[in-house]
Amino acid sequence: MHSEKIEGYTKKNNTALQGGGQDRIKAQHDKGKLTARERVHLLLDEGTFTEIDPLTTHHYHEYDMQKKKFFTDGVIGGYGNVDGRQIFVFAYDFTILGGTLSQMGAKKICKLMDHAVQTGCPIIGIMDSGGARIQEGIMSLDGFADIFYHNQLASGVIPQITASIGPSAGGSVYSPAMTDFVIMVDKVGTMFVTGPDVVKTVLGEEISFQDLGGAMTHGSKSGVAHFVAKNEYECMDYIKKLISFLPQNNSEAPPKITTDDDPNRMDHNLINIIPENPLQPYDMKEIINSIVDNHIFFEVHELFAQNIVVGFARMNGRVVGIIANQPIHLAGALDIDSSNKASRFIRFCDAFNISLITLVDTPGYMPGSNQEHNGIIRHGSKLLYAYCEATVPKITLVIGKAYGGAYIAMGSKNLRTDINYAWPTARCAVLGGEAAVKIMYRKDLSEAEDAEALKKQLIDEFTEKFENPYVAASHGTIDNVIDPAETRPMLIKALDMLENKRVKQLPRKHGNINL
Q1: Which of 39, 73, 189, 269 is 20 to 30 A from 466, comparing alpha carbons?
Q2: Entry pTM
Q3: Whether residue 473 lies in the annotated active site
Q4: Is 406 one of the catalytic residues?
């Protein structure tokens, strides 16, 4: 009797492992895609996956659904380790009814998210789904709503990461958008609210799946994707590397490691990266790579809003979030997309106890009717809000230009940044010398015999009086002007000093950021 029950269990278990069956598994492989189960095993340390709810099935009979019952019901989920650290994971299984979400599939995902929050572990979702299961009607839509609610509950409590390795349409795109990071696989992952057929019917516009919602579109244009991977293997590597910088939850510090990179290492070539002419561009990533541990900078949103650079690195083994203007794109000016990109990154770092280092070289906010009409005031204010709100250690270094509102927005002292340094090359002012002189001395210049000579003289005087970093240092809004060669050791000393920073805040439900 017992042996029969064990045989029955073994048969059910083996059936569950087959997903939608060998034919559908072959069809998945023929598309060059791994199955949900293969993806989970690729992500996790070998032998660590423990599955939860492998025997769930749907409970519907309409449209001959009783003939289409599969164990797991289209979602594989459970827990395991990534580099020895426990995480929870779920993966939509395209071999089962096209990976559509059922009421039971949603219930399973929500159960995993509850476990993840209660045990303080990151959760990874792997998308390959046809969206809501039509045959279940409103119950599948309610399932998505439950998932969204759990995304919100987990936000800022545990890291949430999404891998897009197949289709996502309609409601299924919004859960990824509510997570902290999205990795899309190029030419495989797609995300859109309405697909190409609907777009053609409603607007008469013909567009391909990839152009409408492919990885490169979301990586470079919409900003939905933080990373674009070449294939599924690189996608899992991105997740593993990302997790290595993050704490398990918001009550822990990010993982500190021992480094062989000398915290007192100096770089006398740093100053040579900055051109003599402040109008000439240079690559800010050269400076970032020089000052961080072992020259390793893990960039986030690399293809989106490239006029600002954000990402993770380590300083003497301690994880930091870096925000930096990028002069080789739009001269490093702030615009709508860069404000959104930096604000979201700052708020993530603040939620998960990651110190912030800001490197400044910006001529200001991007001018023009396009920016104004699309809400640069509204979106630009997010950057101010994010810096003001953040209570983690905040360190700012002004390298070049820091003009006007952009000087304020890039982690200036009065946004309650802890330590503000500047290089001797820094230029802090309401306006650059030439623009300021044109406004202040318009009449004098129009009446002068040698307007160019007078303009040069006035610009030099303005630079001496207002634009150099020593003026800001005399007011204490710059804590010190430092030798560029000493940048790494000075930043590390500041981080050490701020390690036990505590900020008491007024009680409130939440602020009202201008979304």
Answers
A1: 269
A2: 0.95
A3: no
A4: yes
